[in-house]
Amino acid sequence: MDKKIRAVTISPTRNKCDSCFQSHCCRYATQQIVAPRSMRDFDHLLWQVSHRSVHVFKDADGWFLRIMSDCEHLQQDGRCGIYEQRPLVCREHSNEFCEKDEPIETASELYFQDYTQLHAYCEQRFRNWGKRFEQK
Prior knowledge:
- The chain has a domain at 29-72 and 100-128.
- Helices cover 23% and strands 16% of the residues.
- The protein contains four helices and four strands, in the order E-H-E-E-H-H-E-H.
- The chain has helices spanning 39-49, 88-92, 104-107, 115-125, and strands spanning 28-33, 54-59, 62-68, 110-112.
- A four-stranded antiparallel beta sheet has the order 1-3-2-4.
- Helix 1 (39-49) runs antiparallel to helix 4.
């Protein structure tokens, strides 16, 4: 007996958020920072990334702190608990390119999730990195 297989067409969602059950963009906050240039600037970044759940990255838009912390309004089902009253930054957020497409860690030009990673980068970037504490 031949079994007939019926094809089911699933129409793509108009909004990536409708199919995102991990709520990627609600699991952290980013803050753009002034591009670090000097050893002192990078030393300051080392202090910031030394705090739990604080990462640093550089992408085409500049340098950012990434604070890994869930939004307090994120519901168990991955939806926003204050959707109708959500802040403008949430309303204006574009999902044209988002974490579902590629994680920030791999999409960024530079990404540091801890002191060790950023420190190694600083040692490569600055020839005299190890002497930054010496009095002049």
